[in-house]
Amino acid sequence: MNEPGNAAKPLFADTVDTEQLEQSFLQAQELRRQRIQPSERVRGIIYGLIFAVLTAIILLLPTPWEGRVSLKVGDVSSVDIRAPRRLSYVSKVLTEQERKRAAASVPNYYFPPDPRILRQQLTQAHNILDYITTVRKDPYATTQEKESYLKAIASVSLSDDAVSDILKMSDPRWQRTEEEVASVLSRAMSREIRENQLAEARRSVPTRVSAYLSDDQILVVEEMVRQLLRPNTLYDKAKTEAAREAAREAVKPVTVTYERGKTIVRAGDVVTESEMEALEKFGLVAERFSWRRVIGIVLLVLMMTAFMGMGLYVEDSYWLDPVQPRLLTATFLAFVIVAKFMVPQHALLPYFYPLAVLSMVVSTTMSLRLAVFATVAFGVLVGYLSGNSFVLGATLTLGSVATPVVLGRADRLNRFMWAGIAMALTSLLSFLAFTEVGLTLGTAGVFQAGSALILNGVFSTGLTIIFFYLMGGWLDVTTPLQLIELSRPTSPLLRQLLLKAPGTYHHSLIVANMAERAADAVGADPFLIRVGAYYHDVGKTNNPHFFAENQAEGMNPHSRLDPHTSAQIIISHVQEGVKLADKYHLPREIKNFISEHHGTMLVRYFYVKAIEEAGDPSKVDEADFRYPGPKPQQKETAILMLADGVEAAVRASAPRTQEEIDRIVRHIFAERILDGQMDESNLTMYDFNAIRMAFLEVLKGLYHPRVKYPELKDAESGTTEGRKSEAQESGGNKEPATDGAPAGR
User: Which of 740, 730, 653 is nearest to 699 (CA)?
Assistant: First the structure.
């Protein structure tokens, strides 16, 4: 990005005392170093320990399938398993199979044909035909209107050809068509039509239509009769279920007897439900305690916790926000539980583990860095639970890491689709690569696992969207889906802003463009800051005419108020905005833009005016003229504060050159920094310069010098006519470029 004219010029040259500015930066850096208190670090570490302890407990607790044999229904046994003793028992599995077989042999029962259904359909047919006749005879409707009337029939959907044929028929031919519709419908429904026979009945309609009709008449009759046909013989559910229940009850319990040494499951055989039942009856699936397993799980959990802690260390929001540690811990534990039940002792189910969901959720709600750390940690967990399967863990990890990279900020719904495709392709290619170098699953196993990975990519995107809805609705977490909804102009609060305060709405759009460009330049969240900019001034909708951008020329209500009252009205738009945000259930992060975009700044215009009226500065309390804050706590809200101030100052001053715009931008930046408003935002000197360059790129397109067009003189009168001059176009109404002026800036 090239700055026009003065790229090498120092950031705050000719605006403030650089020594004073340097001292302010040093103080801000010290404040940032002290921002995270030891108690907040301890709180975050405690949640990490809670995660480690609960994860270890979850992994150590037995599941129903754990025991002396690691088999489940559908698995192939690698050894012969024999009965350790003689045992007879009533097999619930075999008994239920016999009962299902007996119930399935009972046919369905139906009621006799119901003549009321035929009469009902004939009445409906006559009503439709009468309506069509009325439309045909309408002398005032055009052909296009008649076609639209016929296509609007709710119970019968006519094709374009049928509609055209109906309107072209002569009255005698249409009358013959009406008669044939009723006749064919009556004959077709006079026979028994069951629910499963409806399709066949519709296919047989052409055989019932008179051969003396023309092709266009036959088309209309067939389309209408097919759609009017209904089953006239209803399924007798009660009688059928009673018969099937009787058949089930007639089956005697099946008793199974195993002699000692008899083979329960042979090596190489697929374990069936009845064989699994036998293993459970003999107690061969009882779990066994192992200290080695306990130590392995503890070491694994500590490794996961430490590894994810490395990703969290630089995430200030985790340490400063009391909600995020709880939410993150709960999310991680939920995915541990899912892994516990999906991965161990299963052959195909682990390939459906939604690790990509975790990766996408963490990347969009916190950061890509943490998402990568968490994905790798959980990939190792999946590999461990699957019997130290490097292939499964690496495949899911590589596929899941690809999803947040493609998803990005998730500012468009189609990004979810591409993220799912990326996950499916990456995991599938990784799996095939590992298969090639020695994984022996067989052709069928490779096909099944590969298909599962592809489906996992599809399911993961859907689950992520559902997860976002739950997080946004129940946990007050700002999700991309919420931002997409809030960014639409039809959003209720934005529409209210447009209708009540159009000047503020236009100002918000410009600020959004500036802030988004700057956020992209410094690595902040462009989509979040754009939506935050849309809503930052919604509080002005309560008193829009007290802000200059909404005032008509020459009308300023502040001229009739004292400075204290005017200042309170200006300041109150922040509190009013927060109230509206609560009323319309805006996410917490959007509320931060409303409450922080002025920080604790001084409404300087009215403060100076109050001092002038009082004649003594000691009689004026500066606190009455400052916004309540807080100061911007993150890059996004700090950028919005700068964009808000710059746009107001540039609009009020109406600069004519790029140098004038640049001077205003530098002045606003210096003023905010010296006032301490940027102390808690984590913005660096490099960031300020990048933000300034981004602002200039946007502003030079909005406030560029206008071309003065040549004038044309009237040959007779000699008067000058033509286009308005540049001064006339601008309106000649200049606002003072002072923060805190009646404009409310």
Answer: 653
On the question of pLDDT at 9 being above 80, the answer is no
pTM for the structure as a whole: 0.55
Report yes or no on 663 lying in a domain: yes
Question: What does the pLDDT read at residue 365?
Answer: 79
Per-residue pLDDT at 532: 93
Question: CB under 8 Å, gap of 24 or more: what pairs does 141-150 form?
Answer: 143/167
Find the mean pLDDT for residues 235-241. Answer: 85
Regarding whether 438 and 328 lie in a shared domain, the answer is yes
Q: Tell me: do 502 and 478 sit in the same domain.
A: no
Share of the chain above pLDDT 70, in %: 82
| The 3-state secondary structure of 703-736, one letter per residue | CCCCCCCCCEECCCCCCEECCCCHHHHHCCCCCC
Do 141 and 51 belong to one domain?
no
Does residue 248 lie within any of the structural domains?
no
H/E segment holding residue 223: helix 215-228
Q: Which residues contact 6 (CB under 8 A, 6 or more apart)?
A: 659, 662
Is the pLDDT at 721 greater than 50? The verdict is no
State the total domains in the chain.
Answer: 3
Are the C-beta atoms of 355 and 396 separated by less than 8 Å? yes
Q: In the structure encoding, which two tokens stand for residue 230, read together?
A: 């209904």
Residue 414: partners with Cβ closer than 8 Å, 6 or more residues away = none
Q: What is the pLDDT of residue 176?
A: 92
| Whether the bond into 139 is cis, omega within 30 of 0 | no
Digit-coded pLDDT (tens) for 247-296: 888 988 888 888 877 888 888 888 888 888 887 777 666 455 667 878 88
Does the pLDDT value for residue 8 go beyond 50?
no
Same-domain check for residues 546 and 432: no
If asked whether residues 557 and 629 sit together in one domain, one would say yes
Whether residue 419 is contained in a domain is answered as yes
For residues 523 and 408, membership in a common domain is answered with no
| Enclosing domain of residue 625 | 494-704
Beta strands 712-713 and 720-721 are antiparallel
- In a shared domain, residues 665 and 532: yes
Residues 53 and 153 grouped into a single domain: no
